[in-house]
Amino acid sequence: MRRARFEENRDFYAAVGQRIAKARDGRLTQEALAKKTALTRTSIVNIEKGRQQILLHTLVDIAQALHLPVTELIPDTNNLEMLLRDKPQKGLEWIKTSTAKQVR
Asked: pLDDT tens for residues 59-75?
């Protein structure tokens, strides 16, 4: 039986959550970040722990609240390759191309 898509990408979401937690630390409390992004504190906790998928517009809202470019919250390509090592090569190439354009 095929695993749910979230289960396959759990490590990616955990890495994003860790970056959010690290960026937030010393700047905002989870409660303050929640208020700035129209989320609950529980959602922030779950996102930071990698238990909750994060929508793209929510990631942008979080980055803006932390006064960071959204690319700071996305794992770098090398880590992404490791996290998504079981993904098709075409998908990995798209991710590399997409993230390289943002870094330039």
From this structure: 999 999 999 999 999 98
